[in-house]
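U., I forgot to send this yesterday:
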Amino acid sequence: MSHAYLSLTRFILLIACYFLFETAGKAQGIQFEHTGWADILSKARTENKPVFLDAYTAWCGPCKLMVKNTFPDSAVAAMYNSRFINVKIDMEKGEGPDLAAQYGIDLYPTLLFVNGEGQVLHRAAGYHDPADFIALGERALDPNRNLRALIRRYAAGERTPGLLLDLARAKAAAADPTASQLANDYLKTQSDWSHPENIEVIMEFANDPFSSGFKFLINNRPIFDAAYGEKAVESRIESIFNEYLEQRPEMPLGEVQRLFASCYPAKAERLASAYKMTYYRQNADSLRFVEAALSHYAQYPTDDPDELTEMAELLCDHANDAKTLDVALDWVSKAIRTQDASYRQDVLAKIYQKTGRKKLAEKALQRAAELRAKE
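Result:
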């Protein structure tokens, strides 16, 4: 037998082995059923297993990451294939919309666990890596710790601190907005809110800027800064502020000022003053915007050339009286003295044009062109 023949034989075997292992690799991971929901529940009853439903959409980024990183994992597959009936359903196709309505699914992915009767045992929302996803499945299987068990205990009247906190965290994982109130109820059972576990609860659940937990955070910043770092705490406060404001787009100005006072007591007046300008601009109230801008910068002057230029142009856009336009002229001139730039000369020209000083406007435009050629 020739050396060439042996080499060819080895090559063919290597290619065959490659395709064998490649095919085997693709077969690994969670094995999902491809039947209708009624059949899935029937199989669950027959095999006495709960159902895991991956409720996804085609456009959901975290859903795709689950498919790529989590579902193919060998440890995940070993657990879910042996202990669950698994199914993936697009919530915008086929039975998906009806199931989404039935189970209140509006976040993706929603990871839903139900029994053979279709009753929810446990649920969570969002991306889970393999380790977290295995822990989630284990909790769904635990008849004492899954969401269904915790809700039953709560409905029976139990209000122990442990239950309140477990239920709050389980509901938070499912993106249930009632989680925060449960966390507040838990805190009411605690005498020392500065205890590390309670500090963690406040950081995790204090989503209402007017809640007692959030007020404790604001009034005890050094404790939280020491535990989590100043930047992390500042970011959490900012997130709570922004989320509260975004959920209430029609919030009256007075309420916004109260929100600033709650979240940023040390600088509430300045922030509220600045917000007034934004508020009146968004509501196309030029008169009040101009008044708010003049008042704000009289109280809180700035040397920032970009801010001065921006506000000078806004005054020019919203005001027509000579006195206000002179203020705008002063602001942009101050910015130019600090750092000349073509766009600042453009704003200067715009103000000169509006006030009828055409020669000065032309001069400013010429200067803008010269600067632009060098930029």
